[in-house]
């Protein structure tokens, strides 16, 4: 063992602990709807991305097992893929899942713009894989990527892996984006504008209609990560792109099965020619083992269920608005326009103390600290679910305001 090298890591860990930024794994013993058992306590789960409750819905699980048993793909495909999709990991369930996604997005796009209706889906092992693979495939040397400063780490890593130049514009500051493109567009072959639709740490929402206008004015590609929007926004649950009527205008939509859909895996929706291009150029797609057939089947099941959840989506938005207003009235620093509700304290200590106080009152929420958020932006992030009620949340504003 290289003790000098290991001492470097030990020193860095000591520094992380000194700054109250140390992380460790937290084992959940069981899940029951909106509650979890953690450290032998039954707690309201305010830290999950299970926005529609699919991952912990026993009725859905039982229905899926019955459905799965009557359409047993295990005999045909087994439990594991044991190969990438370009070798022997692809199968008819993948085709069915991608066809279902393509149909949903194309139908919605056609309702807005008949001339640009054709959309095709490509499934990835995760949303992180999609972002870190697609962006380097779309942009390289001689190209430019424009990124919102609060984009997810997977988008940032995708940009770093590309050989493209990049600019980071202020959060939701589209005037700054326009100024930068006005100065720089002529120096680059291709330009990609990358944004989340619902931002994971602040819960605020990108102005996709404005971004469509900017991308058209500057002959750019628009890349939108809908990870926290799919399942929650839009009549059919297809996200902010659906809600704002811009599915036909966005060049690449990336989303995940791992949040509101209660599963694992990611997907991209794009034009047919770009889908074919991505199959040939995206390294995480080419070199990753395919998802297990049972997961693909569950993804199909939850995707169909998602379409029927309009009432759940409406309930979730009403609850989010009520809760955010109560926090603001209590003097808490909050914001956003989604099911993600931040309470911003600024320093790590107060964020930890607030999370501990909530734990004592039966709520499981974790402090979010740099580097997950910018320095000075430490917070708790409260993730709401459609099956929560106001009675679950009403005491929280008074608890957390003591730490503001």
Summarize the structure.
The protein has helices spanning 3-18, 58-70, 74-77, 85-89, 92-112, 127-138, 153-161, 174-184, 208-217, 240-243, 272-281, 283-287, 293-306, 310-329, 348-360, 390-393, 396-400; strands at 28-32, 35-38, 41-45, 120-124, 144-148, 165-169, 191-196, 221-225, 252-256, 266-270, 340-346, 363-364, 367-368, 378-383.
Using DSSP, what is the number of strands? 14
Radius of gyration: 22 Å
CATH architecture of the largest domain: 3-Layer(aba) Sandwich
CATH-assigned homologous superfamily of the largest domain: Type I PLP-dependent aspartate aminotransferase-like (Major domain)
Instruction: Write down the oligomeric state.
Output: single chain
Q: How does the overall form come out from the CA principal axes?
A: globular
Instruction: Please indicate the percent range of residues in DSSP E strands (runs of 2 or more).
Output: 15-25%
What do these coordinates show?
With 404 residues, this protein is of the alpha/beta class. It folds into two domains: 20-52 and 309-403, Aspartate Aminotransferase, domain 1; 76-306, Aspartate Aminotransferase, domain 2, CATH 3.40.640.10. Helix content is 44%, strand content 17%. The protein contains 17 helices and 14 strands. The protein has a seven-stranded mixed sheet, with helices on both faces. Strands 1-2-3-12 form a four-stranded mixed sheet. The longest helix has 21 residues, at 92-112. The radius of gyration is 22 Å and the shape is globular. The relative contact order is 0.15.
């Amino acid at each position: 063992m290289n003790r000098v090298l290991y001492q470097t890591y030990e020193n860095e860990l000591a520094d992380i602990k000194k700054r109250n930024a140390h992380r460790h794994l937290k084992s959940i013993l069981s899940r029951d709807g909106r509650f979890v058992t953690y450290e032998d306590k039954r707690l309201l789960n305010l830290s999950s991305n299970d926005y529609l409750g699919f991952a912990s819905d026993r009725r859905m699980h039982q229905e899926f097992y019955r459905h799965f048993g009557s359409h047993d793909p295990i005999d045909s495909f087994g439990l594991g893929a044991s190969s990438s999709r370009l070798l022997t990991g692809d199968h008819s369930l993948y085709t069915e899942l991608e066809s279902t996604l393509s149909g949903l997005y194309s139908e919605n796009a056609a309702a807005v713009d008949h001339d640009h209706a054709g959309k095709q889906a490509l499934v990835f092992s995760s949303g992180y894989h999609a972002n870190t693979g697609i962006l380097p495939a779309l942009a390289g040397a001689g190209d430019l990527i424009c990124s919102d400063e609060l984009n997810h780490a997977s988008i940032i890593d995708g940009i770093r892996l590309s050989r493209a130049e990049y600019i980071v514009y202020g959060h939701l500051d589209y005037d700054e984006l326009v100024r930068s493109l006005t100065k720089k567009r002529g120096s680059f072959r291709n330009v990609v504008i990358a944004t989340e639709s619902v931002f994971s740490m602040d819960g605020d929402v990108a102005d996709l209609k404005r971004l469509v206008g900017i991308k058209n004015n500057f002959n750019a590609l628009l890349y939108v990560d809908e990870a926290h929007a799919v399942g929650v926004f839009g009549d059919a649950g297809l996200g902010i792109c659906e809600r704002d009527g811009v599915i036909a205008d966005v060049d690449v939509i990336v989303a995940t099965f791992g949040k509101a859909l209660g599963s694992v895996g990611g997907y991209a929706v794009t034009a047919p020619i770009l889908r074919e291009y991505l199959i040939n150029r995206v390294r995480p797609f080419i070199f990753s083992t395919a998802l297990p057939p049972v997961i693909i089947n569950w993804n199909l099941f939850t995707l169909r269920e998602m379409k029927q959840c309009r009432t759940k989506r409406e309930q979730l938005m009403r609850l989010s608005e009520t809760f955010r207003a109560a926090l603001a009235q209590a003097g808490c620093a909050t914001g956003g326009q989604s099911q993600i509700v931040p309470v911003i304290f600024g320093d790590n200590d107060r964020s930890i103390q607030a999370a501990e106080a909530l734990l004592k009152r039966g709520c499981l929420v974790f402090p979010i600290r740099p580097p997950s958020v910018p320095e000075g932006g430490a917070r708790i992030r409260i993730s709401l679910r459609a099956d929560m009620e106001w009675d679950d949340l009403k005491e929280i504003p008074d608890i957390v305001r003591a730490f503001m």
